[in-house]
Amino acid sequence: MASGGLQLLGFVLAFLGWIGIIISTAMPQWKMASYAGDNIVTAQALYEGLWMSCAMQSTGQIQCKVYDSLLKLESTLQATRALMVAAILLGLVAIFVSVTGMKCMKCMEDDQVKKMRMAVFGGVIFIIAGLAALVATSWYGNRVARAFYDPFTPVNTRFEFGSALFIGWAAASLAILGGAFLCCSCPRRETSYPPTRGYPKNAPSTGKDYV
């Protein structure tokens, strides 16, 4: 029962991490600037994400613009996109595989060994998905930090970490942790020994000799 509870906990954590990866990928707040140029009244904040850039006006209205061409984007941004999309797809595969191997499901009940392996395999896929998201967010965050501390970057164009990066880091950690719980939820195989054979007992002697 303890193994089943750990397995369920791992799946819930990994699933929440997968949802967080989707939210982080869709959010435009991957990096943000507190002001736009010298005209603070026109726009209070600028945001840039993987798919679009947004500007929040002083009235609270947000205007977003999707990137025009894929070929005009930086290679690091394209690689970050690819890693996040790969993490989402891997997480989707891991969900189906893990559900098949869950002890609370009735699938593959006739073969517990294969059912156990499916849960472990789903956990491994969750870990890979979490690592892909972690690499993407860390890579993007490193690029933002380097540009911020670069003395040649104008002060008015410096960006800081956006909320999508923090959500991505937390989601990747949940996916890795949940996948690890799924991998560790399988009970260890106990060594089975052949049953001991009893030796026949000698019949009690009746004191009579047979010729």
Q: What is the CATH architecture term of the domain at 4-27 and 74-184? A: Up-down Bundle
Termini separation (Å)?
65 Å
**Widest sheet, order of strands:** 4-3-2-1-5
In DSSP terms (H or I, runs of 4 or more residues), the helix count works out at 4
Q: Give the CATH class of the domain at 4-27 and 74-184.
A: Mainly Alpha
What structural category do the secondary elements indicate?
Answer: alpha+beta
- Describe the main β-sheet briefly: 5 strands, antiparallel
Give the oligomeric state of the chains in this entry, treating copies of one chain as homo and distinct chains as hetero: single chain
Number of strands: 5
Shape designation: elongated
- DSSP strand (E) fraction? 5-15%
Stretches with pLDDT under 50, minimum 5 residues: none
Summarize the structure in short.
With 211 residues, the protein is of the alpha+beta class. The chain is 53% helix and 10% strand. The chain has a domain of 135 residues: Butyryl-CoA Dehydrogenase, subunit A, domain 3 (Up-down Bundle).
Provide structural commentary.
The chain has 211 residues and is α+β, with helices and mostly antiparallel strands. It has a domain at 4-27 and 74-184: Butyryl-CoA Dehydrogenase, subunit A, domain 3 (Up-down Bundle), CATH 1.20.140.150. Helix content is 53%, strand content 10%. Strands 4-3-2-1-5 form a 5-stranded antiparallel β-sheet. Strand 2 and strand 3 form a beta hairpin. The chain crosses the membrane at residues 7-27, 79-99, 119-141, 161-184. GO terms for molecular function: structural molecule activity. Its main location: other. It is found in: Cell junction, Tight junction; Cell membrane.
